């Protein structure tokens, strides 16, 4: 794939992402996507066989960029494992509060919608989320090793935290405020410090 081809494909994905995090996958029609991207229908089908395949590519591209940002944070040698995780969750609040609209969480937006719509897209979301959880687990392990995190099971902790934050993000959408995520932050802090979470 040459540079121009990659650039056009990425442009379609970027425009599609902005539309879909705002409106949902089902509510974005192909004509609307093409109009916003400024590309002809033939160009779309040159890169994607169907809207569903576009959805898979969108999810994979989102997680690729997400992992790169997470890797940059988690590789900072000046931060303890605990500080890295708390920085991550604080950033999560900023992103899902609309302060970082270009990074809004596709997992929160699409999980319920595409699970019933497309098994391929569901599996792409699940794979991406699982990879993020593995990165969180590695960070928890680092925190255990550097003495900043006090838990016994890094894998269970990473799963518990990610699941809690997905739930908190959904409840924040329903409440239209960040209070559920603020509560999740307090629970996360206590959990990582080895204290009773409630």
Descriptive keywords:
198 residues; mainly alpha; Arc Repressor Mutant, subunit A; Tetracycline Repressor, domain 2; 77% helix; elongated; TetR family transcriptional regulator; DNA-binding; DNA binding; Homeodomain-like_sf
- Approximate strand percentage: under 5%
CATH topology of the largest domain: Tetracycline Repressor, domain 2
Count the DSSP helices.
Answer: 9
In the CATH hierarchy, the architecture of the largest domain is: Orthogonal Bundle
Question: Could you give the distance between the termini?
Answer: 53 Å
CATH class of the largest domain: Mainly Alpha
Query: What order do the helices and strands follow?
Result: HHHHHHHHH
Q: Structural class, from secondary structure content?
A: mainly alpha
Low-confidence stretches are none
Radius of gyration: 18 Å
What is the fourth-level CATH superfamily of the largest domain? Tetracycline Repressor, domain 2
How many distinct domains?
A: 2
Tell me roughly what share of residues is in helical segments.
over 70%
Average residue pLDDT: 89
Overall strand count: 0
Q: Give a short account of the largest sheet.
A: none
Q: What general form does the structure show?
A: elongated
GO molecular function: DNA binding
Protein name: TetR family transcriptional regulator
Organism: Enterovibrio coralii
InterPro entries: Homeodomain-like_sf, HTH_TetR, Tet_transcr_reg_TetR-rel_C_sf, TetR_C
């Amino acid at each position: 794939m040459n540079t121009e081809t990659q650039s056009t494909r990425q442009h379609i994905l970027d425009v599609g992402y902005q539309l879909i995090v705002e409106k949902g996958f089902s509510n974005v029609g192909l004509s609307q996507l093409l109009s916003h991207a400024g590309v002809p229908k033939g160009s779309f089908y040159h890169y994607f066989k169907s809207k569903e395949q576009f959805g898979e590519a969108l999810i994979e591209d989102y997680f690729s960029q997400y992992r790169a940002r997470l890797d940059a944070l988690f590789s900072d040698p000046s931060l303890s494992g605990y500080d890295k995780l708390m920085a991550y969750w604080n950033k999560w609040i900023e992103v899902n509060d609309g302060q970082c609209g270009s990074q809004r969480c596709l997992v929160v937006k699409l999980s319920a919608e595409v699970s019933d719509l497309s098994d391929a897209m569901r599996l792409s979301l699940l794979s991406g989320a699982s990879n993020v959880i593995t990165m969180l687990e590695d960070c928890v392990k680092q925190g255990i090793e550097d003495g900043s995190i006090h838990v016994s099971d890094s894998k269970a902790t990473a799963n518990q935290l990610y699941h809690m934050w997905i739930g908190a993000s959904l409840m924040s959408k329903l409440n239209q405020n960040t209070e559920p995520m603020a509560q999740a932050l307090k629970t996360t802090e206590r959990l990582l410090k080895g204290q009773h979470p409630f």
